[in-house]
Amino acid sequence: MILVGGQGTRLRPLTSTVPKPVVPLVDRPFISYMLEWLREHGIDDVIMSCGFLATSVRNVLGDGSGMGIRLRFIEEPDPRGTAGAVKLAEPMLDERFVMLNGDVLTDIDLTEQIAQHAATGARATLALVPVADPTAYGLVILEENRSVREFVEKPSSDSVESNLISAGAYVLERDVLDLVAPDRNVSIEREVWPLLVGDGLYGYPSDSYWLDIGTPARYLQGTFDIIEGNVETAVRERLGSDWLAVHESAEVFGRVIPPAVLERGVRVAEGAHVGSLAVLAEGVSVGAGTTVERSVILNGSEIGEGCQLRDCIVAAGCRVGARTKITGGAVLGEGVTIGADNVITRGARIFPGVTLPDGAIEF
Ligand code: GDD
Ligand code: MG
Q1: pLDDT digit string (tens) for 90-107?
Q2: pLDDT: is 290 or 52 the higher one?
Q3: Whose CA is nearest to atom 25 of ligand 1?
Q4: pLDDT of amino acid 52
Q5: Mutate to test the pocket of ligand 1, among 1, 2, 3 (most ligand atoms within 8 A of CB)
């Protein structure tokens, strides 16, 4: 059971036109990483609980047969919260199942987590990872035997006594859903875990790769970690030993510095530098003398001559005029047109379809 009902507001404008689960990450829809990870651990029957833009998620992923997975979708009549969404799926679930927050990139050892769950006789086992600042997450304090002593969702900074947080990957016994009232909005973190403390709630600490990709900065971090091989994914194989995946149809006259991914029909003009840490999706063109570093440019976008793109995300179908600089975590939404000689930086987010004339902005 994967929860993908959130609106992905913190990832706008990328999620203004594309639902978060199918926002492209390196070379595939984000949620594909999760499906591939599940399959690696023998899980091939998946229910996705959708809210926002459910039909477009289904259109991109289909029935999962392409990935060797049975994929079913549930649409909530209204947002039911993290427990209410699972309650709605109760009749479709096995006695023991895995539940996942749909916004994390990880290679946690689910097989071992499931084995620990069975060995302890737990009712719920939460995967746990250490983070520097637990205040944005669900904080967990464990006993010696890995039972949970305390669970605090979004703790205030003065109550943080551990750096272990819930990674959003759970093994559950279906009877836990007896604690959830039907047809209501219920939060599993705030209303269910507290009831299970001392009554079958366990933690499975892991030191695997883990990232919640919910913001542009983390989206870029996730991209870099995938193409640097810090997280185990199928993309690693595509990159090979030279850490480059350049499609045979790409025309490269400039220089490409690994790790980098250049897809079908990409064109890099003379004197341009692409990489390190760059992803150019299908049909992207990069003008002469332009630098693209630590950045992602999505399908069909055209970058002019003499531009500098660093630490930025450019969604599909954008046009960027000559000598424009896009840096500092800026994000261009789909179909944005930026004229020549602009400077876009400091986390600026430009919404889909916006047009800026030449020399309009300097920050
Ligand atoms: N179907 C459905 N319906 N899905 C939902 C709903 C809903 O009403 N509300 C949230 N979700 C989905 C989101 O799309 C996301 O994939 C997941 O549930 C978790 O919601 P977030 O809004 O991303 O929560 P969070 O990141 O603040 O906190 C959660 O994740 C942390 C780890 O990233 C909590 O589970 C924390 O305890 C945890 O540490
Ligand atoms: Mg989240």
Answers
A1: 999 999 999 999 999 999
A2: 290
A3: 137
A4: 63
A5: 3
Cα(159) to ligand 2 centroid in Å equals: 21
Domains with residue ranges and CATH for the chain: 2-214 (3.90.550.10), 240-356 (2.160.10.10)
Percent above pLDDT 90 for the chain: 85
3-state SS, one letter per residue, for the chain: CEEECCCCHHHCCHHHHCCHHHCEECCEEHHHHHHHHHHHCCCCEEEEEECCCHHHHHHHHCCCHHHCCEEEEEECCCCCHHHHHHHHCHHHCCCEEEEEECCEEECCCHHHHHHHHHHHCCCEEEEEEECCCHHHCEEEEECCCCEEEEEEECCCHHHCCCCEEEEEEEEEEHHHHHHCCCCCCCCHHHHHHHHHCCCCEEEEECCCCEEECCCHHHHHHHHHHHHCCCCCCCHHHHHCCCCEEECCCCEECCEEECCEEECCCCEECCCCEEECCEEECCCCEECCCCEEECEEECCCCEECCCCEEECCEECCCCEECCCCEECCCCEECCCCEECCCCEECCCCEECCCCEECCCCCCC
Q: What is the pLDDT of residues 298-339, one digit of tens each?
A: 999 999 999 999 999 999 999 999 999 999 999 999 999 999
14 lines ligand 1 (CB under 6 A): no
